[in-house]
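Input structure tokens:
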């Protein structure tokens, strides 16, 4: 049960109204279960370990797989106690955990998730524009974030889940330094120069032709005089 046992009446009405707006928004794509107020209509899990997020989105096919769980917070419930009591258990579940907070509390919610390493899949802010509720995505986890969530749900694997990356995230500086060192070592390594191809050996005939002196060309008159005339020999 949430540490916020009793919200101000106005905030509780706002909270339950947003849950029903989300139910209308997602009901075309999912079977939507809601748990407004103290109701427990749509559990996640079974037995004493079952939890009751504000909104549970289930696929409409035969598998009935839970696709998302959503928790809606108000100004009073975005605090450290709430994040440890509800966000941490929801983030360790297999379905992606989505968090909806007032627009004024979006930065606070991101900081709380970062400080506690809560593997939240998405954070959305909400605010009224006239009579229409607007939802704005303010954070989305990396594509491989679900691997960390599953590792957190299964501690026997020896891995721990991670939330929003921030300055307090354990191992972030070590990983960054190791990656930088790897890039530096890769760029500092000189590239190997291609080996020159050996010159082809000249054949014996080519050597003989190159060693033989060239004969001087005879003048045109000498060539004409040296050539015998066939016609004069016949007359004699």
């Amino acid at each position: 049960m949430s540490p916020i046992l009793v919200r101000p009446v106005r905030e509780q009405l706002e909270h339950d109204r947003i849950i029903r707006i989300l139910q209308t928004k997602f009901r075309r794509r999912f079977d939507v279960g809601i748990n407004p107020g103290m109701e427990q209509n749509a559990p996640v899990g079974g037995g004493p370990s079952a939890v009751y997020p504000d909104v549970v989105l289930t696929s409409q096919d035969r598998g009935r797989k839970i696709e998302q769980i959503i928790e809606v917070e108000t100004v009073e419930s975005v605090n450290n106690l709430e994040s440890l009591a509800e966000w941490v258990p929801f983030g360790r579940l297999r379905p992606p955990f989505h968090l909806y907070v007032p627009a004024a509390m979006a930065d606070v919610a991101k900081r709380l998730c970062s400080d506690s390493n809560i593997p939240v899949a998405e954070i959305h802010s909400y605010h009224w524009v006239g009579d229409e509720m607007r939802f704005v995505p303010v954070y989305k986890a990396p594509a491989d974030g679900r691997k960390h969530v599953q590792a957190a749900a299964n501690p026997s694997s020896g891995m721990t889940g991670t939330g929003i990356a921030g300055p307090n995230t354990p191992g972030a500086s070590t990983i960054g330094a190791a990656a930088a060192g790897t890039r530096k070592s890769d760029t500092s390594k000189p590239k190997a120069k291609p080996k020159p191809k050996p010159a082809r050996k000249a054949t014996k005939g080519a050597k003989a032709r190159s060693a033989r002196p060239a004969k001087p060309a005879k003048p045109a008159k000498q060539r004409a005089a040296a050539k015998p005339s066939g016609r004069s020999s016949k007359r004699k």
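DSSP finds eight helices and six strands in the chain. Confidence is low (pLDDT under 50) at residues 155-162, 168-187, 232-236.
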